[in-house]
Queue: 2 jobs
Job 1
Amino acid sequence: MRKVFLGLALLCAGACSLFGQTTQTLCDLFPNCVTGSAVPDDVAYQLVFLSAAVPNNPTQEQLKRQQNIIAAIGLTDDDAAFLTSSLVGFRDSYINLYTSFVADIVNGADFNIRGNLFLAERAALVSKVQTTLQNGLSPSDPSVGTDGGYAILDSFVQGSKVHMETVLNPR
């Protein structure tokens, strides 16, 4: 029943956009939706990473979009290059996790068990990239009052939350 509700809600959201009704949001459809600062950090980082990641063989348009997003973050050139290289494979790994999850559900896997596994795998993927970035981006230098690369990225992610919404535990 929950899968049917989720599917119908997503179908309705898609239909609304097809007919020009763009005011419909996740929070209009789900009572357990959160926005802004209530969006969990791991979800916010996941959304930023997905928006900045490109496929293995990106088009020029995809590369330009990535450059624009990374420029908006405000990193130094070296930190921007490190972020870009750290996101290589992230998008594809995320898509593989999601595709596997959907296929398992379609093939009869228990939604709660498989959903929890997907959430854990997704969190581990995001955490791995975060750890790589924490260890590889330029450090903060309090003696001269500069923020390091990860602090700049975190500030961007936190500021981006005002544009995010997500459903907590949609099951």
Note: Residues 1-21 have pLDDT under 50 and may be disordered.
Job 2
Amino acid sequence: MSTQESYDIPTSEPAGSRQPHVLRGVSKNATGEYDTNLLLYKGKGDFLRGFVNVNNEKIDVIVHINQRKDSPEKFLTVTKKEGEEWRQIGFGNALTHRKDDKPVYNDEIIFNIKGVTLNARVAKSIDPALHQQLGFTESIKPRPERSDSEKPNLQEQISFLATQLQAHTSSKALGQIKIEFKEKFGVDLPAISAEPAPKPGSTPKSKG
């Protein structure tokens, strides 16, 4: 790849921006909570930019969308900058069929980065043209509702919010946090009151 090419690779969404992510992957950590291990945004061209987290190493990457020479299938190549060169460290493919005949929802891309497999899902709000560009041949199919036992508990939701607010208070709009909360938990983010909660044992002030 040309050493003259330069890319803007934010590790979080720029201040004031409302641009949604294109792909996001998560993994469960040792405490049972979920961490983002892949987050990609649309670049100004046929590429995505963002970061991956592999073996506890956060890597800024550019992901190129490629066309196979011998078929209409698309595939992705993941590159990182080393010195003045961009070198490939992995690849990704849209999941359009399964050998075990399990359902395919046309919203998942499987990456292999430095020998580590990362599963990422496309944003529900993705542009249909970009969705097709990523290698999907059919539109996204709705996933079935999770049972109560599979749904994340309140502690997981609180942990997710705390992590997002701590990391993005100055760089991410509340609207984007609401979008990611809905995609992760399948429910709308509850309204947050600007008034401080009353202290234990105190009597709430009357608004009369």
Note: DSSP finds three helices and eight strands in the chain.
